[in-house]
Amino acid sequence: MRQLYNKTIDEKIFLEELENGLKVYIMPKRGYTKQFAIFATHFGSNDSKFVVPGEKDVTEVPDGVAHFLEHKMFEEEEGSVFEQFSKLGASANAYTNFTTTAYLFASTENFYDNLKLLVKFVQNPYFTDENVEKEKGIIAQEIRMYQDDPNWRVYFNALEALYHVHPVRKDIAGTIESISKINKEILYKCYNTFYHPENMVLFAVGDIDVDKTIDVIKENVSQKKKLGEIKRIYPDEPLSVYKNQVVQDMQVSIPLFNLGFKDTDVGFGSKNLLKKSLETQICLEMVLGRSSDLYEKLYNEGLIDSTFSFDYGGEIDYGYSIVGGQSKDPYKVRDMILEAIKNPQFLIKEDFERIKKKYVGKFLRTFNSVDSIAYSFINLYMKEINLLDYIDVLYSLTFEDVVKRFEIHLQEQNSVLSVINPIKGQA
């Protein structure tokens, strides 16, 4: 067993790689009343085209399979896994995003029993023709719900405008048409490929015993042989944006907008990706944060309100910044932002130092919550980043790094505008 330690924050994580390839990370937090465990696979909505280790042919599956699998995993022949967690006093959940599917629970008692249940149910799929068909109706309802959600649509319309062919432009749940093509054979093939221990990670945190946690996992995990690397196939994405603008009418009272910036500096993970992500977040805060001159100007002119926000989503093979909210004139907001970013001289070193300290505090607060620790760990792990490296990379950032990143990323030619307008004539 290896021990990962960061002296700066005095935090440690234990790592053990099992013979089947599963990596187990355990973070003891003495005195915490809550425990949290998350069992995740590196399989998300982007992974619809791949080559199974040992095969030559390319497998292509319908959009939405990863999300469909997540739904089905909680159903067993004898009933719902949620009920079993509930009887043990735990709260269970799961999520699917572009790169990851994760299953988790939070508990204040019976941690090892809950951990055993987590490990066992994720390794025991139960798919039948009947329960797959039934699930299609449930997921179709979910898809319709999101299609009717203006905030969801303004976001995915922006992604569709940013990307020509990359699967990040597709809805995580797929479409009603794509899920209609899913059957139990497809689910089992994806499960056997991506839910292999070698493609998974288990993270546990709380006032827990490291050795006992490892023993419970070893006793209940499958003893599969290592599978080998899964070849994921993504189309070649051009550097340019697909279209500069997309507009849709929906039931809203005030227009919604997302101004997106496509990242053209991609293709790497680990500390370099972490550094770039932090540079971008700090850059956005300097340009558009509540203490910035631009934010004050937009707010005072009544162009933005409390819904205004921004974020950077950076993965190994793609990345984008999204700025958005409600506005009576999204086009004017866009024009003012694009005009402002033409001149990097408005970036001030004192602002950088202040915001950097803010991010240090924000990161340290992560360790007050086992939930936050676990979510952050998995999110970074899937990008080949160690959570304990975060603070040192953050401390290493310089003002010059952020200015350089600003000049590369926030470019008008990399931008798109997505707008949701009120339906004309609606009351």
The CATH fourth-level homologous superfamily of the largest domain: Metalloenzyme, LuxS/M16 peptidase-like
The CATH topology of the largest domain comes to Cytochrome Bc1 Complex, Chain A, domain 1
List the strand order in the largest sheet.
Answer: 1-2-3-11-4-10-9
Largest sheet: 7 strands, mixed
Q: Structural class, please? A: alpha+beta
Tell me the total number of β-strands: 17
Question: Tell me, what is the CATH class of the largest domain?
Answer: Alpha Beta
**Shape designation:** globular
**Amino- and carboxy-terminal Cα gap:** 64 Å
Number of helices: 15
Instruction: Look at the structure and give the mean pLDDT.
Output: 95
Protein name: Peptidase M16 domain-containing protein
GO molecular function, one term: metal ion binding
Pfam families: Peptidase_M16 (PF00675), Peptidase_M16_C (PF05193)
Domain Peptidase M16 C-terminal: 181-356
Give a concise summary.
The chain contains 15 helices and 17 strands. With 427 residues, the protein is α+β, with helices and mostly antiparallel strands.
